[in-house]
Amino acid sequence: MPHLDHTAFVTACRDERGVGHHTLRAYAQDLRTFARFTKDRHLTDPLSKDDILAYHRHLRDELDAKPATIERRLVTLKSYFAWRADRNSALPSPFADVRISVRIPRRLPRPIDRETLKAVLQSETGPTNARPADQEITILIIKLLIVTGLRISELTTLKIRDISADASQMIVRGKGNRERIVFVPNTELQEAFRRYCADRARHGSLQSPLFLNAVGRRLRSQTFRKRLRVLSHRLDITPHLTPHRFRHSAATLLFEEGIDIRMIQALLGHANLRTTEIYVRVSNHALRRALERVDVLSELRQ
């Protein structure tokens, strides 16, 4: 069986490429899946093109993996073998002559409709089983997600030092550890955010996490997702609220208000404009639904 140096590869991705925690965890999982495959098939180095094609069939036919999962696992594996070959020329990558095309259905984002967003903001309370302070923080974070389009991981890893004195802007570290400046445009929200940041600065150092959980530690993404599930249940919102749906909503609302797509790309931190262009399709879908609701011809017949 070939030796897959998971730890060294993941460490290199973290230290040399600035890959995020969630991606690193996915890399490790992908490589463990391949390691099990090579062990079951009694494969040894050097691996061949046929071994990679067999692994593709294994993912598709035996594990019944989704196309997106198959693509990710192959991309991870290809990156790993390229990294290994660079370290040891005696072990060439088996992907050298492999051409695998994985067709991935393009799924539209699912933004939260305006009426639901209004209901959430008008509730002005978080989950009823949360402490009053946690309720306020939940709503503050929701508002920030709506106006900034941040990923929840970007928001929960913010430190006090990352926020400007007037809380009008923040330094955000996105995928690949790329930094960008994100603005808080709403005056009322900016003032509430400033008060919150000032209070945190009085009780923590500049290196301290900006958002804390109930026990005074950094608020984790999963904890906030659980809060949103509770809030969704209380307000009878289906499908339930998620941080990424707020991100989709931020992009869609801005596009519908006429903001240039390249500005939205900068706000969201997308490296490729094609990733942002999907919101054009979302807005067209919203336009079609609006036209169907109005039904102008029926109105003219009355």
Number of domains: 2
Structural class by sheet pairing and helices: mainly alpha
Low-confidence stretches: none
The portion of residues forming beta strands comes to under 5%
- Largest sheet composition: 2 strands, antiparallel
Order of helices and strands: HHHHHHHEEHHHHHH
What is the helix tally? Answer: 13
Q: Indicate the CATH class of the largest domain.
A: Mainly Alpha
What's the Cα radius of gyration? 23 Å
CATH-defined fold name of the largest domain: hpI Integrase, Chain A
Q: Give the rounded overall mean pLDDT.
A: 83
Shape: elongated
Architecture blueprint of SSEs:
Blueprint: H1 6-17, H2 21-41, H3 49-62, H4 67-87, H5 114-123, H6 132-148, H7 152-156, E1 169-173, E2 179-183, H8 187-203, H9 221-235, H10 243-256, H11 261-268, H12 273-294, H13 296-301
Antiparallel strand pairs: 1-2
Helix pairs in contact: 1-2, 2-4, 6-10, 10-12, 11-12
